[in-house]
UniProtKB/TrEMBL annotation:
One of its GO terms (molecular function) is aldehyde dehydrogenase (NADP+) activity. Pfam families: Aldedh (PF00171). Gene3D superfamilies: Aldehyde Dehydrogenase, Chain A, domain 1, Aldehyde Dehydrogenase, Chain A, domain 2. InterPro entries: Ald_DH/histidinol_DH (IPR016161), Ald_DH_C (IPR016163), Ald_DH_N (IPR016162), Aldehyde_DH_dom (IPR015590), Aldehyde_DH_Superfamily (IPR050740), ALDH_KGSADH (IPR044151). Keywords: Oxidoreductase. It comes from Pedobacter cryoconitis. Coiled coil: none annotated. It is an enzyme of class 1 (oxidoreductase). Its EC number is 1.2.1.4. This is NADP-dependent aldehyde dehydrogenase.
């Protein structure tokens, strides 16, 4: 494993400041020096990416698909070396990381299938009508084209699936955009291993070398330079509201503002309707506890807010949930910074008027460092509504139970929360029919509505929407999970009265790619 940055698929010579990864469970440094990228590295990575873009965007769809499949194969081939390093750097257990590896390679293959099929370019053809009165109609053909180099900020909480070769990289490469990754400092070695796998896939696939660079930094300088660089055409980010907002501002202040797709936090309300609680208080409590504690609560879809009406079954629900939270074993958090944030934010929550601690984990492993303590706190709907601080994300295994006196208050609570990635409704059969007004409002608050299920667990598929109204993300029109994530990195271009031979294949009259196109308002995969 080499800790030099990778510039256009080649290891750069490095000098100067180096740093090491730390095992959050033990506090010990892990082997391997990683070097801070310099201004020249950023410059070279973006120059190479811009050059590579010219040919990569024209590459036949089957070759690009083959490249993504080769990346998946190379990452998979890393096997235990990758899992062990990722576990040592993140504190995440082996089983979780094996699942995440499957997700990472699976999503690369899913994007490969999507681009090999090819219809995603959304080709629309309106043929000429020279005899139309009073004016002839020109021949207009439109499709999506890649934006150019994309900067990806690896996320801390998915060292594989949302990092160097995660969903952002996979969808940008699938779209035809070169990628420059700013590695997350909490999993440097994992990033280096995956970076090396991508380099091998580039050699194997014969794609231009400038399509991939990987830069390390232990601070903000490199990330800021990447966002400000005039050759960067889009940015993706998953992390804190503060970090995301800073990058969005930088991108907007540029001479040429560019899109930043930032996922910045969500408390994922779970609405427990009265009949559902009355029918199955214990079962619901178990589901909630498992979801709160999953992965030490370090998921963007962690259920940080439970909302219920004071009704029969609530006490039993609360008592069972409290028991489960007390039994939750502590778990190593991703980094000392995330652990410190969790403790301070969780402690601040308890200082507010009306907030009571219901239960906290009694299963603390004091042999290890950065151990999360699961917590459930409780507040009335009135106090929740009067204090916006209680609406903020506490990143970790922490949830707030808001108790409303009636359904009107419960609806007020839902109206009051910020934009969310998900909202879940736990309802008994037929119960939703009583709440049509509540249901009507929910789509305005969230990107994904879940019935009788917990928010954790985001299926990677074509229909997934992982993105919601601000501030859960800054652009609710897009998703960062699933095949439509590719739309973040393209823009439409129309060709008017263009010669057929000079058109992109996707728009040529004979339809040589055999893709589905909208021709004169009819969907067809035949030629004209
Ligand atoms: P972060 O602090 O937002 O950092 C994410 C990445 O962005 C890192 O590579 C970081 O670089 C970089 N970065 C942050 N601010 C920047 C700035 N102003 N300029 C340039 N680069 C910047 O997230 P994190 O380290 O993963 O965790 C911190 C907190 O973020 C957590 O405690 C949690 O509250 C939140 N978080 C939320 C989610 C979610 O899905 N909702 C996921 C992860 C984290 P450096 O690390 O080098 O500074």
């Amino acid at each position: 494993m080499r800790g030099n940055h990778i510039i256009c698929s080649a290891y750069a010579e490095t000098a100067g400041k180096s740093f090491r990864a730390v095992n959050p469970a033990t506090g010990q440094e892990l082997a391997g020096d990683f070097y801070k990228a310099e201004v020249l590295d950023v410059e070279n990575a973006l120059k190479g990416a811009t050059l590579a873009y010219q040919s990569y965007k024209e590459l036949h769809k089957d070759l690009r698909a083959g490249f993504l499949r080769n990346i998946a194969d190379e990452i998979f081939a890393l096997g235990d070396q990758l899992i062990n390093r990722a576990s040592a750097e993140s504190g995440l257990p082996e089983a979780r990381l094996r699942g995440e590896l499957g997700r990472t390679t699976g999503q690369l293959r899913l994007f490969a299938d999507q681009i090999a099929e090819g219809s995603w370019v959304d080709a629309i053809i309106d043929t000429a009508q020279p005899d139309r009165q009073p004016l002839p109609r020109p021949d207009i053909r439109r499709m999506l084209v890649p934006l150019g180099p994309v900067v990806v900020f690896g996320a801390s909480n998915f060292p594989l699936a949302f990092s160097v070769a995660g969903g952002d990289t996979a969808s940008a490469l699938a779209a035809g955009c070169p990628v420059i990754v700013k590695a997350h400092p909490a999993h440097l070695g994992t990033s280096a291993l995956v970076g090396a796998a991508i380099v091998k896939a580039i050699e194997k696939s014969g794609v231009p070398k400038g399509v991939f660079s990987l830069l390390f930094d232990d601070g903000y300088t490199v990330g800021e330079q990447l966002v400000k660089h005039p050759y960067t055409k889009a940015v993706t980010f998953t992390g804190s509201f503060k970090g995301g907002s800073a990058l969005i501002s930088l991108a907007q202040e540029r001479a040429e503002p560019i899109p930043v797709f930032a996922e910045m936090g969500s408390i994922n309300p779970v609405i427990l309707l009265p009949q559902a609680i009355a029918n199955k208080p214990e079962e619901l409590a178990q589901q909630c506890a498992a979801s709160i504690a999953l992965g030490a609560g370090q998921f963007c879809t962690n259920p940080g807010l439970l909302i219920a009406v004071n009704s029969p079954g609530l006490e039993k629900f609360k008592a069972t949930l409290a028991d489960k939270i007390r039994e939750t074993p502590s778990a190593t958090m991703l980094s000392p910074g995330i652990y410190a944030n969790y403790n301070s934010r969780s402690a601040v929550m308890l200082k507010w008027d009306g907030v009571d601690l219901v239960a906290e984990s009694r299963q603390l492993n004091d042999q290890l460092q950065n151990q999360s303590v699961a917590r459930l706190v409780e507040v009335s709907a009135t106090d929740f509504l009067s204090n916006k601080e209680l609406h903020e994300e506490v990143f970790g295994p922490h949830s707030i139970l808001v108790i409303a006196e009636n359904m009107t208050e419960l609806e007020d609570v839902i109206h009051s929360v910020n934009g969310q990635l998900t909202i879940s409704l736990m309802a008994a059969p037929g119960e939703l029919e009583n709440y049509s007004a509540l249901l009507n409002d929910l789509t305005g608050k969230t990107g994904r509505l879940i019935l009788n299920g917990m928010p954790t667990g985001v299926e990677v598929c074509s229909a997934m929407q992982h993105g919601g109204p601000y501030p859960s993300t800054n652009d609710s029109r897009f998703t960062s999970v699933g095949t439509t994530a590719i739309h973040r990195f393209v823009r439409p271009v129309a060709w008017q009265d263009w010669e057929d031979a000079l058109l992109p294949d996707a728009l040529k009259a004979k339809n040589p790619l055999g893709i589905y196109r909208m021709v004169d308002q009819k969907l067809t995969n035949h030629g004209q």
